[in-house]
Amino acid sequence: MNYIDINLTGTQELYINTKLDNLGVSNIDLTWTLKMDGNDTINPVEFKTGLNESNTLSAQGYYQRLDVDFDGIELQDNIHYVLQGTRDDNNEIIYLGKVFVTSTDIANFTVHPDKYTMKNSTNNFTILN
User: Fold this and answer.
1) pLDDT greater than 90 at residue 42
2) Are 121 and 24 contacting, i.e. CB atoms less than 8 angstroms apart?
3) Which candidate, 114, 112, 16, 90, places its Cα nearest to that of 56?
4) Which residue stretches of the chain are H helix?
5) pLDDT tens, residue by residue, 43-61
6) Cβ contact 14:63 at 8 Å
């Protein structure tokens, strides 16, 4: 799962596997769409990658790295988005996946903070076979 931190400024990296061959992957013009998961009509966001774009897609071996500057793009906190990549020359969908947008530091992110407590027990059983 890729994460977008809405508190960070500048370029953020997303690691994906597209249907593209890694040779010349940065030379192909692509349109990327972010749609709120479960609701395709609310504020879809588009950005482009390609030769003359500031956002880039680069080959990293068996996967690709998508470098995107999300400054000025309005995304909601703690929401899953569907990320779709489409070739501009033939409208082929080359990537479809999810990203999670959060304002919480990713290293300290937990799904349910302070909701679970460890049960303390003095019963320590040993099972013999």
Assistant:
1) no
2) no
3) 16
4) none
5) 789 999 998 899 999 999 8
6) no
Q: Could you tell me which CATH number the domain at 2-107 has?
A: 2.60.40
Cβ neighbours for 64, distance < 8 A, ≥ 6 positions apart: 15, 16, 17, 18, 20, 22, 25, 57, 58
Residue-wise burial string across 99-108, b where 16 or more C-beta atoms lie within 10 A, e elsewhere: bebbeeeeee
How big is the CA angle at 114 (ends 6 and 2), to the nearest 5 degrees?
A: 30
- The pLDDT of residue 122: 67
Q: Say if CB 12 and CB 102 are below 8 A apart.
A: no
User: What is the identity of the amino acid at 10?
Assistant: G
DSSP designation for 105: -
Positions of E strands within 37-78: 45-49, 56-59, 64-69
Q: What is the residue type of 102? A: T
For residue 30, give the nearest of 75, 77, 120, 93 by alpha carbon.
93
| Residue listed under structure tokens 């030379």 | 27
**Where in the chain are the domains?**
2-107
Mean pLDDT calculated for residue range 71-100: 93
